[in-house]
Write a structure and sequence with these properties.
Pfam family, one: HAAS
Structural class: mainly alpha
Helix content: over 70%
Keywords: Membrane, Transmembrane, Transmembrane helix
Shape: rod-shaped
Number of helices: 8
Order of helices and strands: HHHHHHHH
Number of strands: 0
Distance between the termini: 20 Å
Radius of gyration: 26 Å
Protein name: DUF1700 domain-containing protein
Organism: Niallia oryzisoli
Length: about 190
């Protein structure tokens, strides 16, 4: 594969990265080819030593998405990073998607429990408004106790969500490094 073919495939595969970053990457590979040509290598030898442009692009997109999550943690950025890391290889479908679904389930369940516990007094008051004849102080006091517990759960979930998100981002970075290292030695 010639230099122009390699760079064209790489550019086409890097559509998901902003154009300024894409140009920097292409410039780096252009310089790599220039240095290799100065050393007496052919364009085909240089492109063969670099590997597949599609795989390089997948790794670069995954790195970019993980860095985006590190800069700004949003649900969209997390999903895009997970999807990019899964795209590195079929094995990642199990290794990344399984823990992601488990952690997302734990976080969502914790938040739902906290919010419903906090809403318990409101639900009791609505029940009393609809059926005033069944009011009991025990229900009101128990719902207030649940609301207090719900506040503690919500506060705990805030910190748990933040730490699990940071831990998962570190896991994604580790996975990307592992795949890169595994491809270099293959």
């Amino acid at each position: 594969m010639t230099k122009n073919e390699f760079l064209a495939e790489l550019k086409a595969s890097l559509k998901k990265i902003p154009s300024d970053e894409r140009q920097d990457i292409l410039q780096d590979f252009q310089e790599h080819f220039d240095i290799g040509l100065e050393e007496g290598k052919t364009e085909e030898e240089i492109s063969a030593s670099l590997g597949s442009p599609q795989q390089i692009a997948k790794e670069l997109v995954a790195n970019y998405r993980v860095e985006m999550v590190e800069d700004k943690v949003t649900t969209g950025n997390i999903f895009r990073a997970v999807w990019a890391v899964i795209g590195l290889g079929f094995f990642n479908l199990i290794i990344v998607l399984g823990p992601f679904v488990a952690l997302a389930g734990i976080i969502i369940a914790g938040w739902i429990i906290g919010i419903t516990f906090v809403a318990a007094p409101l639900l009791v008051l609505i029940n009393v408004a609809v059926y005033p004849q069944i009011f009991e102080f025990f229900d009101l006091f128990f719902s207030i106790a649940l609301a207090g517990l719900g506040l503690f759960i919500a506060i705990g979930m805030f910190f748990a969500t933040r730490s699990l998100t940071n831990g998962f981002v570190r896991y994604l970075k580790y996975n990307v490094r592992l795949v890169k290292g595994g491809l270099k030695h293959a």
